[in-house]
User: Fold these one by one.
Assistant:
Number 1:
Amino acid sequence: MPYVHVVFTVPEQLAPLAPGNQRLFYSLLFRAVSETLLQIAADPRRLGARIGVLAVLHTWSQNLRHHPHLHCLVPAGGLAFDNSRWIGTRRRGFFLPVRVLSRMFRGKLLAFLKQSYRCDELCFAGKLAELSTPRAFYALLHALRRREWVVYSKPPFGGPEHVLKYLARYTHRVAISNGRLLSLDNGQVRFRWRDSRHDNRSGVMQLGAIEFIRRFLLHVLPSGFVKIRHFGLLANRNRRQALALCRLHLTAAAPEIDRLLNEQQRSALSRSCPQCKRGTMRVIAHCATPEPATPNHCFTPRSSTLPEKTVRTWLPTRPLDSAASKPALAPLCLESTPQQLGHLRKPHIPEQPHPYDRFSPTLTVSIGALSATSAPSRQHSIPIHPLR
């Protein structure tokens, strides 16, 4: 199944609204792009089918300037509205007319912004304060409505292998990678870039450190904002059923994901959460295995007058003769009657930040004759360390 790469770009006159209204502006951008693709593809004059869309938000250009645009990955076809068949593109190498996409995208995004302005949801700070008046804002929208917006549709490319390579390049990128950074000397940052206006000619750009950081921070999205979204057949709520229908009509089997992944990607997938089976576990640190206790680490009280019914309890402690050192925990054996054991099951232990803290709690244990009439022969104060 071929896929199409469609790019929707926001005009440079409208882009300054985004930094002060990131969550609202980018959400409206996703909405305008998804509704444009789904509505035009559903038109019987174009494709007449339900399609799926995977959209990825990018906000930067090669020189780190603010340049918001959406990369959309779309299967070259869709399901009929009655789910009876698969409908492919009518011409090979062609998906949907970019002029129609551009004009509908322009109309929808401007309409959404106008509605947000009427609801007083937009923020105009700094140099944008002059746009806060209705006359200035509507004049901007009117000027943008008369311009042609840029929508680019690349020719369809191959199957799952190409899709995975594309996703690896575009989905989890930041404004600039470490490989493009060249040097930092005397407060000047040098990095490689490509000039798209001059046939992608490569060059080296030099910026002051403050200006470099300012440009980089323009592309930090709000906390929790989702920059990769799925629509149509690929939407989360009906993706499983829709993909099953697509494979049925295309007589295609489910792809073997393991065959398409490299060793590093397989390793990432194998670190799944043992509880929910969905999340991915990331190893932070490895804890050393406690060493086995030696006989010198165990303190066994000696008593010749212990009653017949005794209960044996094990508590973790340090050796009594080397309290300053921090060896492995060793078990302590205590013998007591069930009545006295009730006081030992839940000793009052203050909360400690770590089992190897310098100041540890102390448990006083009475050992000796444990009858109702006799008093204990001796007492021992033993430092204990609660297990975490």
Number 2:
Amino acid sequence: MKKISLIILIVFIGFIIAAMTYNFWPSSPVSNSVINTSTPAVTNLPANAPIVNKPTTKPPVNNSTPSSTSKPTPVNATPTLSAAQVATHNQPNDCYLIVNNKVYDVTTYIGRHPGGKKSIYDRCGQESSAIFAAIHSNSAWNLLNKYYVADLSK
């Protein structure tokens, strides 16, 4: 009987903690001193009340013609790094890998690598496509995308 009572008490306390954690009820009563009066109060509106939005302003239209000397500036959406630049990131606390002509900063992942730290340390700053492809699953390839930094420049 004592065991059942103890289990029920522990479950009850667990429910109370969960309820307080997920704000099922406030942990302390709300006083008028903590009510924010700087924002308007929400009132109960009828279900068919119209939704009113603030008017938006349109950006001004540029009707001027571009000069013949101005050229559009190309925007490089994808950053690139050279192999020489990647090679400088060859330390355990600054480790880039090249896999399939993409550069990945795996510094923060090294400690979690299931194959051990050394297998990555030995390849920091280097091309690693062949070894990566030979031993890694699809989930490892998906995980690698989180560490993408740039494409490898030609």
Number 3:
Amino acid sequence: MTDESAFQDSLDELAIQLRPSRALPPSRAELLDRYFGTCAVFADWLEEQGDWRAAGYRWISQYRKVPRCAVSTWEWWRFGESGSATTEDLPTAVWNRLPCTKDQALHTCKGYSTRRDAEWALCKAINSLEADK
């Protein structure tokens, strides 16, 4: 893959297959491995391009996070710092930095119109945290 659209299209397809209603083979674990592997390669490619989102996609791959696909939104959640966190559950420090409009945010959920928008917001949060280091 040599352009962003190929990476994003691949991530879109994997994310759709990860929806709970699509629990058919390949297994969810295999799909997640493919998703996070694609994010890692995408992060490397973004870094080569000098793109600020590289750190965010590397974080997604390392911490194995993917937004939850709801009926009309892609959502990040904050359930706390429990050890049983789901793939869409973010640490409080990251959650607090997620940009969103007031109508997109609930007490424990922030929603975005697309997977790409949700991941863009996460990249912004990660960059904000790294800037504070």
